[in-house]
Write a structure and sequence with these properties.
single chain, 125 residues, alpha+beta, 5-stranded mixed sheet, 46% strand, binds copper (II) ion
Length: 125
């Protein structure tokens, strides 16, 4: 009887530990929205790409690669984090984007030390 009770307690503790772990994992920086938005068709070239994350991020270890429809990298400024909003990554464009489709490959390091990455596309008409 006693053994069974201890066994149940161990199971409950393990489950609680797992839940605590998964809520930590959920704190990784996920892309919430971007400008231009994913799948957007904009009529004029943006001056910059803006990516909003669910957590604050470290600019020095975060960035993007912008690829044109031929998968050729497009020159951009270095990624920076907005000083009063550290979950926002901003990447200036050195010149206006030509009409075409673009892919943004992003990678960020959140302040909790976790890396995340992803990609999205948009196009300029
Ligand atoms: Cu994390």
């Amino acid at each position: 009887m006693q053994k069974k009770r201890i066994y149940r307690m161990v199971i409950a503790l393990a489950a609680a530990g797992l839940m605590a772990f998964s809520s930590l994992a959920a704190a990784h920086a996920h892309l919430q929205f971007s400008l231009p938005a994913a799948k957007a068709q904009v009529t004029t070239s943006p001056d910059a790409l803006t990516l909003n994350f669910s957590e604050d991020i470290e600019a020095a270890f975060s960035g993007i690669t912008l690829l044109d429809s031929a998968q050729t990298p497009v020159a951009t400024a270095n990624a920076r984090v907005e000083s009063d909003q550290k979950n926002r990554l901003i990447v200036g464009l050195s010149q206006p984007l030509k009409a075409g489709s673009y892919q943004v490959n992003w990678h960020v390091l959140s302040v909790d030390g976790h890396k995340t990455a992803g990609s999205y596309r948009f196009s300029v008409k």
